[in-house]
Amino acid sequence: MRRSPFLLILLVVLGAIAVGLLGLGAFPPAVTPQPVERSLPNERFTTGR
Q1: How open is the CA angle 30-33-35, to the nearest 5 degrees?
Q2: pLDDT tens across 8-46, in order?
Q3: For residue 49, what are the contacts with CB-CB under 8 A and spacing of at least 6?
Q4: Predicted structure pTM score
């Protein structure tokens, strides 16, 4: 029996997605470290009343 071209294309696309996900899982991209910046409260202008 001959399969329709749509199913063949769908299988090829799903296979490429699976291979891509496996590749990302095996070799994850490098993350560049960035410093953590926190906003500190400015207590100089607040009144303690």
Answers
A1: 165
A2: 999 999 999 999 999 999 999 898 999 988 887 777 766
A3: none
A4: 0.55
Structure token pair of residue 49: 């009343």
Q: Annotate the chain with DSSP letters as a single string.
A: -PPPHHHHHHHHHHHHHHHHHHHHHHSPPP--------PPP--SS----
Angular region, 32: left φ>0, alpha ψ -120 to 50, beta rest: beta
Handedness of CA 18, 20, 23, 27 (dihedral sign): negative
